[in-house]
Design brief:
The chain has 307 residues and is α+β, with helices and mostly antiparallel strands. The chain has a single domain, classed as paralog of FGE (formylglycine-generating enzyme), CATH 3.90.1580.10. The chain is built from 7 helices and 11 strands. The protein has a 4-stranded mixed β-sheet. The radius of gyration is 18 Å and the shape is globular.
Length: 307
């Protein structure tokens, strides 16, 4: 049974995602430079408070995670499985069978407000209001209106203009980690290797983007998390396509038969400015240097599913 979340619970779930997870389990990441045993900095009471803040009627009218789910509130259970990863396209081939373990994945991307809590705790550096000006390698950054930090009306938008180290630090603070690209693609595709997180139908009104059927050429920023529930995966993970590209902990390779680069990391999911339906597909992958930041780039966290 997938997680289907009503609009009334989006804020509550986002708050629960922001609550640190206290667990004795290791949250080791596939990123070889990441710390293997993150330490949570607050008690689980924050999660309980977030849950009880929702009205009983809102919960009763929502089809939420099954009671047997092993994941904390605000996270979706993605069961272990095997799927055909990749596609017959440049940078996505060869198609190959991959087995992945069960994980818990944040239902929503990390929001501006949630990331600000980490910055206030002096664990994360604040999200930037500057982004790359031109080409990736020219090193120039400038203040950009599309960066969500500092906008009081964008607290429920995904945080953007953060680099890989900031994303890694945030997830570690929450007792979580960034997903590998294998975990991310499996969450988006499932064992049946879906073309898009929601299935096979062409993208339109299922996501925050600039393509056909959704504000073509008119969108100027991200969307509040959970704005497009029709785009949710079978397991109930929302916004895997659109709004912001998402950092993973995996180093990039030109294709799956080539060696991985040390300085380039995989990003997934497409952003609010994406116009090409092919870029929205769950197998599509891009790369960025770990120090790169821009207004179309954010992240979400995962953790190993409890036994």
């Amino acid at each position: 049974m997938g997680v289907r979340v009503s609009g009334a619970l989006v804020g509550t779930l986002a708050a629960a995602i922001a609550a640190p997870i206290v667990s004795a389990r290791s949250t080791a990441t596939a990123n070889p430079t990441a710390t293997a045993n993150p330490t949570a900095t607050a008690s689980a009471s924050a999660t309980a408070a977030a849950i009880t803040s929702a009205s009983a009627s809102a919960i009763a009218t929502s089809a939420s995670a099954p009671s047997a789910s092993p994941c904390p509130f605000g996270m979706a259970f993605v069961p272990a499985g095997r799927f055909d990863m990749g596609a017959k396209r440049e940078h996505e081939w060869p198609v190959h069978s991959v087995e992945v373990p069960a994980i818990c994945m944040d239902i929503f991307e990390v929001t501006v407000d949630a990331f600000a809590e980490c910055a206030a705790a002096k664990t994360c550096t604040p999200a930037y209001d500057t982004a790359v000006w031109a080409n990736i390698g020219d090193g120039r950054y400038t203040k950009r209106e599309q960066c969500n930090a500092g906008h009081a009306d964008r607290g429920d938008h995904p945080v953007n203009c953060v680099d890989l180290l900031q994303a890694t630090a945030y997830c570690k603070w929450r007792g979580k980690r960034l997903p590998t690209e294998e975990e991310w693609e499996h969450a988006a595709r499932g064992d049946e290797s879906r073309v898009y997180p929601w299935g096979a139908s062409e993208p339109g009104t299922q996501l925050c983007w600039s393509g056909e059927g959704n504000d073509v050429g008119k969108r100027t920023s991200t969307c509040p998390v959970g704005s497009y529930p029709l785009g949710a995966s079978t397991e109930g993970v929302q916004d895997l396509a659109g709004s912001v590209w998402e950092w993973t902990s995996s180093k990039y390779s030109d294709d799956y038969a080539s060696p991985r680069y040390d300085s380039a990391y995989v990003t997934r999911g497409a952003g609010w400015g994406t116009k090409d339906a092919a870029d929205v597909g769950s197998s599509f992958r891009k790369w960025l240097p770990r120090s790169y930041r821009n207004y179309y780039l954010g992240f979400r966290c995962v953790m190993d599913a409890p036994n």
